[in-house]
Specification:
This protein has 147 residues and is mainly alpha-helical. It folds into 2 domains: 106 residues, Multidrug-efflux Transporter Regulator, Chain: A, Domain 2; 33 residues, no CATH class. 51% of the residues lie in helices and 5% in strands. It has 6 helices and 3 strands. α3 packs across α4. It binds FE2/S2 (inorganic) cluster. The site of FE2/S2 (inorganic) cluster has 10 residues, from α5.
């Protein structure tokens, strides 16, 4: 029986998207993509899923966790494939998150500079061991031991 041209097998989706079959199954298990089932219980994917997979790949490349990508895709009505406007909105949000992550990493790198060659890992002075003296804000004493 001929299948609709708008549907792809998992192998076709993998070949067209550049994503491994195992990764596509993983995306499906995590709720990022959905398949249809044939009468013989084989997976079929709507052709427009290629764009959704592209968005997932780009999000991952930008370091966005899969759970956040899924949450972003869930904001689209009826699980539709992101439109140009959707993608513009998502990419703006991810850009802001990427900027924040870069800032945190720059800060971490600068703190690490002070630790290179030191080795003290002191709660009092090491910015990586106790950033911003968080334990000191809880009060004096052995904060790591007391519940
Ligand atoms: S290891 Fe000494 S300041 Fe971090």
């Amino acid at each position: 029986m001929a299948r609709p041209v708008q549907e792809l097998t998992v192998g076709e989706l993998a070949a067209r998207s550049g994503v491994a079959v195992s990764a596509l199954h993983f995306y499906e298990k995590k709720g990022l993509i959905r398949s249809l089932r044939t009468a013989g219980n084989q997976r079929r994917y709507p052709r427009d899923l290629l764009r959704r997979v592209a968005v997932i790949k780009v999000g991952q490349r930008a370091g966005v966790p899969l759970a956040e990508i899924r949450a972003a895709l869930e904001t689209l009505p009826d699980g539709r494939t992101p439109t140009v406007a959707d993608w513009a909105r998502l990419s703006r949000r991810w850009r802001a998150e990427l900027d924040e992550r870069i800032q945190r990493l720059v800060h971490l790198r600068d703190d690490l500079d002070g630790c290179i060659g030191c080795g003290c890992l002191s709660l009092k002075v090491c910015p990586l061991r106790n950033p911003d003296d968080r334990l000191g804000e809880d009060g004096a004493g052995p904060r790591l031991i007391e519940p």
